[in-house]
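FW: tagging you since you asked about this chain on Friday. Here's the raw sequence from the shared folder, copied in full. Didn't touch anything.
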Amino acid sequence: WSAGTSTGEEAYTLAILCEDAGARSYEVVGTDLSSRAVLAARQGRYLPKSFRGEIERSLRQRWFTYELTGVTVHPELKLHPRFEVKNLVDARGLADLGAFDVIFCRNVLIYLSTSGRARVIESFYEHLRPGGLLFLGHSESLFTLETRFRVNPLARVLVYQRPEVPG
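HL: got it, structure written out here
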């Protein structure tokens, strides 16, 4: 789940990673509060400046069409991410999303009040399968909140994991 996906770049990146890893069955869900952002994500059309850093030539050729007016996600890739308008603070409105192995929520929590962050984090916990992982942005952490997540350092980032067994 790419929570706070904005215009979908992260969700498409996750789909590319799944495809390139040979995943036969996967689902990427991108949600955002903005209906305008979700519409843009579904269209999969971007300005070249939306892409940071160099993208390998093979990835560019396989997944994107470059034109003078912008870059479009390949139609085959657009079949995989599902984009929905959702308010992360409204747990009831998220109930139909199901369970996930991984949730990415980068640079969203910094805009919420402490109580809003707590509600969102609890909702993420409920939507993760046991053993599932939560990735936050570099400027975000759960250190100021009491949560049921375990903290796992991974390379240079902190990852939050729902324990396999409650407790």
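FW: Residues 54 and 60 are 10 Å apart (CA to CA).
HL: agreed, and The helical segments are 9-20, 35-43, 57-63, 75-78, 91-94, 114-127.
FW: great, closing this out.
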